[in-house]
Amino acid sequence: MKAAITATAKFLPDDVLTNQDLEKILDTSDEWIRTRTGIRERRILKDPDKATSYLCTGAARSILDKRGIRAEEIDLIIVATMSPDMLFPSTACLVQRNIGALNAWAFDLSGACSGFLYALTTGAQFIEAGTHRKVLVIGGEKMSALMDYTDRNTCVLFGDGAAGVLLEPSQDDEHGVMDAKLHADGRGSEHLCMPGGGSLHPATHETVDSKLHFLNQDGKLVFKSAVTAMADIAVDVMEHNGLDSDDISYLVPHQANKRIIQATAERMGIDMGKVAINIDRYGNTSAATIPICLAELDEAGKLTSGSNLILVSFGAGYTWGGIYLKW
Ligand code: ACO
């Protein structure tokens, strides 16, 4: 039995932070950001009393509405996030409470920008095992909470948002999550991390003053690793499933940098018209980028029965992976 996606939805905060807005607070320019990354604007959740669970709850409610089911029917909620409301309880438990999914168990999964692919693979296994019939998989981030808005190297890249999917048993073995190849290499951990706030550097005046509670990265190094790993994994998944470029309906890549996306499409030999891109509007929303893309393709009616999708990601850890999904 395969796990099929039976509903998708996204939830973005209303406030828009444009490159022009950033020009006013940083030594940067719209031209630099657009040409290096492809980003024009990103969404920001400004309300300090709202966090990732608020965004994920919005996506979850919309998924239930679209599928026309009650929250009590959900068996499991997995939230992929690197910006949970709190270290504990999990953001997934807060979403479970907010939507009233009282028959579901719930947990967070920490896979950074690859979190959604890790979570989708995990959720699919519960369906494939036959033990669960309705699994909500959500990727959500309030990345603005991890940003140092005086650090132009990093803060221009990220935005806030959430999106997710409902997984259910496929009617046949021809649709759903067909293949997943996931990887990790902890040797890359120091190049992209937020050192503060965990048990190594708990919050003290010193750790806050040292800016350990902000996302920290070696952007150039991460770029080089990402561009190779995403292209390699995309080709690997294609070959493993006997697909050539003509068979692919859409590449749905993590949205970190438009140049990484273009390099991946080029290596796969597919036209940019078949690549889901929204980095210009949302920036990098980490675990939310891929489900936001899926929701937008779905809303636009571009996904029809039998569409072949390749999902690929790379992120902190390092983590990376690729999924072959048949709609
Ligand atoms: N505005 C203006 N100048 C800037 C800015 C900015 N916002 N940010 C950096 N610069 C400057 C730097 O200070 C540096 O100046 P220097 O040469 O005087 O020291 C210069 O621009 C660097 O320019 P480039 O080398 O052309 O920058 P590059 O092409 O490497 O692009 C970028 C930088 C966009 C950060 C790129 O390396 C990148 O996208 N890396 C991936 C990082 C990433 O996406 N991480 C997210 C998590 S992982 C993931 O999601 C894949």
From TrEMBL:
Q: Gene3D superfamilies this protein is in? A: 3.40.47.10
What's the Enzyme Commission number for this chain?
2.3.1.180
> In which domain of life is the source organism classified?
Bacteria
Active site at: 113, 254, 284
Q: Where is the Beta-ketoacyl-[acyl-carrier-protein] synthase III N-terminal domain?
A: 107-186
What chemistry does it catalyse, as a reaction equation?
malonyl-[ACP] + acetyl-CoA + H(+) = 3-oxobutanoyl-[ACP] + CO2 + CoA
Keyword hit for Acyltransferase? yes
* Keyword vocabulary terms for this entry: Acyltransferase, Cytoplasm, Fatty acid biosynthesis, Fatty acid metabolism, Lipid biosynthesis, Lipid metabolism, Multifunctional enzyme, Transferase
What are the residue boundaries of the Beta-ketoacyl-[acyl-carrier-protein] synthase III C-terminal domain, all occurrences included? Answer: 238-327
Keyword Cytoplasm on this protein? yes
Region: ACP-binding, residue numbers: 255-259
InterPro entries xrefs: ACP_syn_III_C, ACP_syn_III_N, FabH, Thiolase-like
* Pathway the protein contributes to: Lipid metabolism; fatty acid biosynthesis
> Where in or outside the cell is it found?
Cytoplasm
Signal peptide (from-to) = none
Q: What is known of its domains?
A: The last Arg residue of the ACP-binding site is essential for the weak association between ACP/AcpP and FabH.
Give the family from UniProt: Belongs to the thiolase-like superfamily. FabH family.
The function of this protein is:
Catalyzes the condensation reaction of fatty acid synthesis by the addition to an acyl acceptor of two carbons from malonyl-ACP. Catalyzes the first condensation reaction which initiates fatty acid synthesis and may therefore play a role in governing the total rate of fatty acid production. Possesses both acetoacetyl-ACP synthase and acetyl transacylase activities. Its substrate specificity determines the biosynthesis of branched-chain and/or straight-chain of fatty acids.
Oligomeric state and interaction partners are given as: Homodimer.
Q: What is this protein called?
A: Beta-ketoacyl-[acyl-carrier-protein] synthase III
